[in-house]
Amino acid sequence: MLAKTLGCSSRTLLLIPKRYASIDYLLTALKPTNAKNDSASSSSKNSTSTLQKAEEAPISGVLPPRDLRKLVLTPSDLTNHFRQPEYAPPSIKVIGEAQAFFNRSKVTLEWTLANYEEIPDIKYELLQQKRSQGIREMDPFYKTEYHENLANSKKTFGIPPEQLRPLPEVLLLGHTNVGKSSLLNNLLVNSKALEYAYVSQKAGYTKTLNCFNIGRKLRVIDSPGYGMFGESKQGKVVLEYISKRHLLRRVFILIDSVEGFREEDIQMMDHLVSEGVPFEIVFTKVDVIIAKFMPKKSVFNSTTKKSKAERLEAARLVEEGNAKIIEYFERMVSTAQLDEVVTVPRLIFNMAVTNRYADKIHGFKEVRTIILESCGLLQSSGEKSTFNLEINE
Ligand SMILES: Nc1nc2c(ncn2[C@@H]2O[C@H](COP(=O)(O)OP(=O)(O)OP(=O)(O)O)[C@@H](O)[C@H]2O)c(=O)[nH]1
Ligand SMILES: [Mg+2]
Fold first, then answer.
1. What is the DSSP letter of 359?
2. What pTM was estimated for this model as a whole?
3. pLDDT for 308-320, tens place per residue?
4. Which end of the chain is less enclosed by CB atoms within 10 A, N or C?
5. Ligand 1 centroid to 327 CA: how many Å?
């Protein structure tokens, strides 16, 4: 079924060796979140405001801020709200270190490929095997020292040696048009990136696996979207990458907040589970949902003079909108039946663009931190953190 959805034959799927057989490994549960505990446990700057914003009506008599946008939930508030008890919130120090690493890293687009066998180290292995086999099968009469040396040669068939260096990898995965390339570009913001991922309103824009080397410490892979406008060849390379790539440390599966979980997403999560590949969930375009539930523009107009009662009423409307946003995502999460998952995926809320309610983008800082953690470059337990983030120039 997944193969069909992704547009490739079921034969392809059958050929893919399963790393772990258990199909039920993840699919069933995100424990129901306890908003109060989750928000309270967070160390993020936004954490204290989540509860106030979402659940507390303005205390009667206390005037709300003149700029009511300060009361509007942000995607970071949502990440804190939905944080599962399994995951301690990252400390400010850890988040800061992760940002510093990404911001000072040199980023290069290393390869963009449509076939798994063309990934530099895979190609190198195949060519080397072929060369060794050729020499092995040679008539001994013609075999010379030259051929023996050739068999042990470290020559790389023209592949830049840098690209053969094994580094941990993470994959951005999701339906077409969900915002994979946009999130990737947010990750590269402020870094010394020479190239960025191409973004388009047109679904199915990214056609290849695109690999970005970050500070010679890890690789982030952007992928072609699945589902509508995804193509069969692209589906095949993504599935093959997921199943075979031993350097893959974590998948970030992106879900468009407007569309919610689609059948293909559920199948893809199922596939990741059966392959034993750990993943996190990133809800994208959260700004659209925030805008959808906020009261009309005039409520936010801070230039017109409002009476005390009008200001309190305006704040109440914003709070009402906040509660609807939380309810919207709670319903979405529960429909995905994530609540009995063995390895609970984290939920990160993202907006890759700014809007009328938020003048900065959200979500990428948390994603950056999880990337480093999953690549073994940042270990944190409570207040203790160790880093392995010197940049190899
Ligand atoms: N409002 C809003 N739009 C977004 C956000 N992220 C991405 N978009 C828009 O969504 C469209 C698709 O974004 P891409 O980043 O190209 O999506 P993709 O998943 O890489 O798409 P494919 O490569 O086609 O699979 C573009 O028009 C983006 O500007 C977001 O957080 N909020
Ligand atoms: Mg793309």
1. S
2. 0.83
3. 888 889 899 999 9
4. C
5. 24
Closest CA to 255 of 361, 357, 336, 371: 336
ipTM strictly over 0.90?
Answer: yes
For 343-376, write each residue's pLDDT tens digit.
789 999 999 999 888 889 999 999 999 999 999 9
Written as one letter, the residue type at 217 is K
Ligand 1 binding site (Cβ under 6 Å of any ligand atom): 174, 176-182, 199-201, 203-206, 224-225, 284-285, 287-288, 350-353
**Confidence band, pLDDT 50/70/90 cuts, at residue 82:** very high
Q: Would the CA dihedral through 205, 208, 209, 215 be positive or negative?
A: negative
Dihedral of CA atoms 156, 161, 166, 172 in degrees, nearest 10, equals -110
> What gap in Å lies between CA 297 and CA 295, rounded to an integer?
7
Domains plus CATH for the chain? 2-121+167-387 (3.40.50.300)
Instruction: Dig out the tokens for 6 from the structure.
Output: 């992704």
Phi, psi (deg, nearest 5) at residue 193: -80, 130
Rounded distance between C-alpha atoms, residue 138 and residue 67, angstroms: 80
Q: How far apart are CA 373 and CA 229, in angstroms?
A: 33
The predicted structure's pLDDT at residue 235 = 82
Nearest 10 degrees: Cα torsion 257, 261, 267, 270: 80
